[in-house]
## 1
Amino acid sequence: QTMRDFLRELPKCEHHVHLEGTLEPDLLFPLAKRNNVSLPADFPSSAEALHERYNRFADLADFLHFYYIGTNVLLLEQDFFDLAWAYFQRAAAQGLRHAEMFFDPQSHTTRGVALDAVVGGFRRACERAETELGVTSKLIMCLLRHLPVPECLATVQSAQPFFESGTVQGLGLDSAERPFPPELFTECYEQARRFQPELRLTAHAGEEGPASYVTTALDLLGAQRIDHGVRCVEDAALVARLASSDTLLTVCPLSNVRLQVVQHVRELPLQKLLDAGVPFSLNSDDPAYFGGYVLDNYVAVQQAFGWSRQTWARVAGAAVRGSWCDDKRKTELL
Ligand code: ES4
Ligand code: ZN
């Protein structure tokens, strides 16, 4: 059995995948045509040319420019279903068993797409994934932190029925990290929690932003996990705190390389986190843009760190334990 086969068969959970970031060029162009959406004049004109451009993002902002153009081709409930279902099939073939998935309502509602169409399509794909693939999942709504706070607050208000019904089980914060510190969104997180006291909370922090953003996400937003968070290592007290509070970091290795957070996977502080007892999971972030799904991220880390099967069992186990599924499902995955 090769290491890749071993890693494929390891029951994997992912906690950091943006559904809009699973839009493969092979679906982007047909959807643009089907929905009569025109792409910018200087946009690469073939799936091959687009893949090539995705190979040289300068930073997070450069990536987000392409990511938001991509979201514009999504209009109908069926589009959101098709997108998520394609992701589930690809990820399940790589040994994905449980996914906690982000979506960005504001990139759709600002174009006149109803929140019902977005959530409805995604939810239908989640149900099919559970029935046909045995993959369980949760939806996490993210706020776009580059938009004005009052708009984010209105988005939280509009999601009240989905929080109350449990269709959306988490709240997150994404888009350009700097100069938009977590504390700007304290009121948004408080309001969402008033709608649903059980709501799970997370936030992107410590990707391009400093370690202090991780601290304020924990202290002021009440984040229960941190997305990326790799820059926590710049603050030793924070590392100790993450370990003692058992706070999961959702690390995205291929993303960090493509967005030049690090130049190579081996520069990520994964061994340091393991040794310090900080739990983390390995995730694909925006797999259609960053060159790999969940197993590809595991394989890239194996190539960089050369861990034993025992260490890999520990890493995959930490991802199960850090999941927001119930204990019964965790037991099935461990
Ligand atoms: C994202 Cl990698 C990353 N960071 C922040 N926001 C995002 N949205 C989609 N991918
Ligand atoms: Zn992300």
## 2
Amino acid sequence: MVQEVFLSIAYERSMFGGAVPVRYDERLMARYLITGVAGFIGSALAREVLAQGDQVRSLDNFSTGKRENISEIFSQIDFREGDLLGSGLVHDACRGVDYILHEAAIASVPRSVKDPLASHRANLDATVDLLIAARDAKVKRVVYAASSSAYGDTPTLPKHEDMTPNPISPYAVAKLASEYYMTSFYRCYGLETVCLRYFNIFGPRQDPDSPYSGVLAKFITQMLRGEQPTIFGDGTQSRDFTYVDNAVQANLLACKAPASEVAGRVFNIGVGQRVDLNETFRLLQKIIGYNGEVKYAPERAGDVKHSLAELTRAKRHLGYTPKIYFEEGLRRTVEWYRSVDSRPDNLGTQFSNPRAPNVDA
Ligand code: NAD
Ligand code: UD1
């Protein structure tokens, strides 16, 4: 649909302008490579990039991503199934690309505590592989899904980018080391990179059914199903929960901001408000109409106690301001989970599209 619109514009111009016909995509559309497109944030980015009239190429190995997250856009994207690391796909995927939005990762703190080597490979080795391919392909800019977990348990709140990082979990170490690689590729090779330190992103399509799922996706679906959620610890830990549209906005701004403002730099992306888990549970009780109680279990290893973003740098240099705040985001997310049948046995059944056309064609 989007491509048809651009095709017709290109046709009219060549008819009446008398110019040599130019391929519509080369003149009018930017090409984005989105890694981890079948994931929660990657699929939201893909929908928005398509909506702004640009092209999406993408890579995913479905390790945590889901086919149904991209089923409705599958025919509009150049999707390549495979691992970023060691599959040989990544160099070809970077060819002709303007911007890379690097989302692919094993995005779980407890999973990294359980299997640090898998976390290291997916979250760090794969990033270095991608950076080499991006450098060789002369990609304009790489925007990286960094993590606020890099701050660890530093007592200062809010967290600002000039603070010394203090990662606790293997996941946080790999995400922070990936940031350093991003910056070093800018300094050593001139590849423009921008790191966005996301603060607990939530919203539609976040996987609720893995033991490693984000707390809000889990709580909402459990409470909608009438099941009892569990708080690890005493529930006083707090997060700057950030609705996914804000992260999408930040990525698009990061691609377009002047290099002098953003290249080689790190930016917090959050909302600038924090809420603890006990309060979050009570709010969800109200929104969902859940009458049950929460149960408590021991605190998780590697868990950060409090998290809150200082946003001055992102506001000044990216032009970022959060558009959707916590409670509104929570309501939208509850509505979304309500509107789909979120039982695990029904997930994945919508996906039937065989293979999307290659955008190079
Ligand atoms: P997600 O698990 O929904 O998405 C990750 C995607 O990457 C999945 O589709 C998975 O299949 C794919 N993937 C993983 N390893 C891969 C590999 N080696 N090759 C190809 N594909 C691979 O996670 P998400 O919540 O959408 O997170 C996206 C990114 O944002 C991650 O880099 C994560 O570390 C970062 N991040 C997320 C949050 C959050 O709160 N969700 C906060 C900070 C940073
Ligand atoms: C999350 C992201 C991570 C990101 C980081 C920083 C996920 C799965 N993790 O980690 O990718 O880099 O934010 O932005 O998206 N909890 C419960 N009960 C549950 C599940 C969790 O009490 O059933 C607690 C946890 O112990 C933790 C808090 O909720 O204190 C948040 O946990 P979680 O959603 O897994 O996110 P983070 O570990 O903060």
## 3
Amino acid sequence: MDNALEVKGLTKKYGEFTAVKGIDFSVLRGEIFGFLGPNGAGKTTTINMLTGLARVSAGTFNLVGYGPQQIKKAQQYIGIVPDESNLYEEMDGFDNLCFCAALYGLPKVLRAEKAKRLLKQFGLEEAGNRPFKANSKGMKRKLTIAAGIIHDPKILFLDEPTTGIDVASARQIRKLILELNKSGTTIFLTTHYIEEAERLCHRIAFIVDGNFIRFPMLFLCGLFIPVSRLPVFLRPLAYALPLTYGADLLKASINNAGQLPLWLNYVVLICFTIFLFSFSIINVLKKWLL
Ligand code: ATP
């Protein structure tokens, strides 16, 4: 599988403040890529840079063959579903979809046909006939997703599609995401919910305070090193060193800012202790018995 998106050293500065700090990652064609992080981590800023809504301060990317300088050309191949809907409140669902189709340059005959098909597929026939503002949050979300895929994008950026909506609507949206992906759309999904990412995504990345984190990290002499920054031959160290997990546990207990799930820290430390314990017992027994 080749890459739909490759990001290298992507950085965003707002004055003195750096919201995204030189992140590197790639998204495979045909996958659902989960981009997780707490509030203010830099998820939306990253999407905005990748879709041409914000200027890149440093670094680069290749999105379906186009870099930051040619982002206008890439826009016909990408779909964007922002965290806050960009549809017109007074226009009905059908007209909103036709309007988006026109913006993406779809021929007039195709616009109405695609809008009708999407409204049916998403179970939004009624929402298609009333002003956007008269819909529930879940319906608005689904309409916004429909608008984001009206031009059959190769890659769809979904910014927190299920935040703030009820369980049933969230379930419907997750189903739609899976169906879209099955039909061949690559999906870049940001979310706060780890369970959602686990359920939907083929791969997951984590951003905290603008830094890209890959599990696990190596903690050595007080240094905190994401594994992705290490040469390949050194990476097993991070997995082997229980120090990684001990330091993270300590960090989590002191300032509630551990990066790894607590259970993982405990499991690794318990396994390591059992290993050490059995190793010493075997050595003692060997001395006695031989
Ligand atoms: P959330 O999950 O709450 O949407 P997020 O991970 O999407 O958060 P961003 O919206 O990307 O986070 O914001 C990252 C950081 O950049 C935040 O500290 C935010 O205050 C800051 N930021 C975002 N936009 C601007 C701006 N236009 N000017 C200055 N700072 C900004």
